[in-house]
Write a structure and sequence with these properties.
Layout: H1 19-26, H2 44-53, H3 55-74, H4 88-94
Helix pairs in contact: 2-3
Length: 117
C-alpha cells in the first residue's frame, strides 16, 4: 500500500479478526495497541439522522456497506475474514444505516461425508 516506502497506518479490527495480527507480526510489522478514550462522544444517532434525512448520504452508505461485504467475501484469508461470521446488523450500523441493505452472502458449502472417499 505504501509502494515500498515507510509509513504508518491505523487499523481497526473486530475480535474475529485478531488472528490477522499474527500474520502482520510474522512479516515484521510493528504494532501498537491504542485504547479507546473513556469519553467518546456518541455520534451514532447524529450520523443515522443524517443518512435518514439525506438521500445522497443514505445511498452512499448502502454502496459502502455492500462494497465492504463484497471485499470481505473476496479476501484471500477467508479463515480470518469469514463473511459467514459477519454480523450484518452491526456492519449496517457502522455505516449509519437503519436497516441491513440486501446483499448476497456466499454460504460455505458443507460437503457430505462419504466413507472411503
Amino acid at each position: 500500500a505504501r509502494a515500498g516506502a515507510y509509513g504508518m497506518a491505523l487499523l481497526f479490527l473486530n475480535p474475529l479478526e485478531f488472528e490477522f495480527l499474527k500474520y502482520l507480526g510474522h512479516y515484521g510489522v510493528h504494532l501498537e495497541e491504542y485504547g479507546v478514550p473513556f469519553k467518546v462522544p456518541n455520534l451514532q444517532l447524529k450520523f443515522e439522522k443524517m443518512t435518514t434525512d439525506d438521500e445522497h448520504l443514505r445511498r452512499a452508505g448502502v454502496r459502502a456497506f455492500k462494497a465492504f461485504v463484497h471485499s470481505y467475501q473476496a479476501h484471500k484469508m477467508r479463515e480470518i475474514f469469514d463473511s459467514n461470521k459477519l454480523d450484518l446488523e452491526t456492519v449496517a450500523i457502522a455505516f449509519a444505516l437503519d436497516h441491513i441493505p440486501p446483499v448476497q452472502i456466499h454460504k460455505k458449502e458443507k460437503k457430505p461425508y462419504v466413507k472411503g472417499v
